[in-house]
UniProtKB/TrEMBL annotation:
Sections of the chain in a coiled coil: none
Segments forming domain Bro-N: 18-124
Short name of any one Pfam family annotated for the protein: Bro-N
Protein name: Bro-N domain-containing protein
PROSITE patterns listed in its UniProt record: BRO_N
Entry-linked InterPro entries: BRO_N_domain
């Protein structure tokens, strides 16, 4: 996997590029931008480097993370400029926190798992953009449902479980 230095600023992305609008989180006056892609949290590598106060070396990050933990993406920064930057998956961020060990990283990990990732997922649900699974109590049973676009969806195979009495078989 050949990835150039991060970030790279450009006047505009290629016409076919998807530009992500990351959510912004602040810790100790430093920003950490994150996006939710397929219900997985991804973090901007250059922001993470500033947050842990350690420059991430691209070759070291690439060598120690798996390919599915890294990807390049086009982002719009807080100044409205376009930039191409490296994104690190949630599992990759935890690996980076170990790779660049510092005692404060434990607090950063806790902040990510207890505040950032849940808020990122919650905001995606509120926007109604992403379906999400939930458990619903029905009588004495627990059913898995899907919430999407203001509706609650139930799997067809769970419908018999909703009846008070077993269905009658005629014939």
């Amino acid at each position: 996997m050949d990835m150039p230095e991060f970030p790279q600023f450009h006047p505009a992305p290629p016409p076919d590029a998807e530009v992500l609008m990351p959510a912004q989180f602040i810790r100790h006056k430093r920003q950490l931008r994150a996006v939710l892609l397929d219900d997985e949290a991804w973090f901007v590598a250059s922001d993470l480097a500033r947050l842990i106060n350690h420059p991430l070396q691209p070759e070291r990050v690439q060598r120690n993370l798996d390919e599915d933990q890294l990807q390049r993406a086009w982002l719009r920064n807080s100044h409205g400029d376009y930039e191409e930057d490296l994104l690190i998956s949630e599992s990759g961020v935890y690996a980076v926190l170990i790779l660049y060990y510092h005692p404060e990283n434990r607090c950063i990990r806790q902040w990510l798992t207890q505040q950032v990732v849940p808020r990122l997922r919650h905001e995606a649900r509120i926007g109604g953009q992403l379906p999400y699974r939930a458990l619903m109590q029905w009588l004495d049973r627990e059913l898995e449902v899907l919430h999407w676009r203001g509706n609650t969806w139930l799997q067809l195979r769970d419908c018999p479980r909703l009846l008070h009495t077993p269905p009658q078989v005629i014939g």
